[in-house]
Design goal:
This protein is of the alpha/beta class and about 260 residues long. It has one domain: LmbE-like (Rossmann fold). It contains eight helices and seven strands, in the order βαβαβαβαββαααβα. Strands 3-2-1-4-5-7-6 form a seven-stranded mixed beta sheet, sandwiched between helices. The longest helix has 16 residues. It is globular.
Length: about 260
């Protein structure tokens, strides 16, 4: 299965990294699309004057490398994303280039309008990827990808329905991957006194508590026709022994 993460900014993938580690260990292919160039990401300046967009491109590629993933940036202006026809075309093309079968994206309500615009735009674009008459320059896919919305944090009307259990090792690696976005960790520490890795570790612990396990990530499916995730798209409890986790090269052991 080709799993495509479509988020507004380089670092937003932090909300599903544990799930990506489990999916990647099962042999699924991961791809990343960022809608903006992240150019507003250094409000206090960078260490050596390097433009924010270049810093964030480098940091995002370091995360993508862990998953042997392709990374596509649509280059919209950070903080000013609008859901126009050009964005829909670019998303249709990106989803096709990555052969997307399952999309993970932002929840549809959030503190940041780039996130909200991205969630709607990619959900709309998904419905066109199998129709060759739309954006004909890039070959159509055989079917519409399923869509999952990642937990946006508390307070946005998000009631999760799908949970992925994580081990302590998953959480540790998730923190290490989040901290590959060095520039954003520095911004967060200056603004709040802690960084995103700390925040996500606390959130996975709170989410896990709902299932009476140590750590978990949470999702909601898009329920629009043809975009409903097949029940087996996500890994479940760590004790689960599905057919993929039992076969040698796709084993999750050691992850
Ligand atoms: Zn963001």
């Amino acid at each position: 299965m080709n799993v495509t993460c479509v988020f507004a900014h380089q670092d937003d993938e932090m909300r599903c990294l544990g799930t990506l580690l489990r999916l990647h260990a099962r042999g699924h292919r991961i791809g990343f699309v960022c809608v903006t160039d992240g150019g507003g990401g250094l409000p206090f300046g960078g260490p050596d004057g390097e433009p924010a967009a270049a810093v964030r491109e480098r940091e995002m590629r370091a995360v993508a490398e862990r998953f042997d993933a392709q990374y596509l940036c649509l280059g919209r202006e950070d903080g000013f994303t609008t859901g126009d026809a050009a964005l829909r075309r670019d998303l249709i093309a990106a989803l096709r280039r990555l052969g997307s079968e399952l999309i993970i994206t932002h929840w549809t309500s959030d503190y940041n309008d780039d996130h909200v615009v991205t969630a709607k735009a990619v959900t709309d674009a998904a419905l066109f990827v199998n129709l060759a008459s739309f954006e004909p320059a890039v070959a159509a896919l055989p079917s519409v990808p399923r869509v999952l919305y990642a937990h946006p944090g508390e307070g946005y009307g998000f009631e999760p329905t799908h949970f992925v259990e994580l081990s302590a090792a998953h959480v540790a690696e998730k923190s290490e991957l989040i901290r590959r976005h060095d520039s954003q960790m520095a911004v967060m520490r200056r603004l709040r006194g802690y960084d995103y890795a700390d925040e996500m570790a606390a959130e996975t612990h709170r989410t896990g508590a709902r299932l009476m396990v140590a750590h978990a990530e949470a999702f909601r499916p898009c329920l629009a026709e043809r975009r409903i995730p097949w029940p087996t798209d996500l890994p479940g409890p760590l004790s689960e022994s599905g057919p993929l986790s039992e076969s040698g090269p796709l084993s999750e052991e050691g992850v």
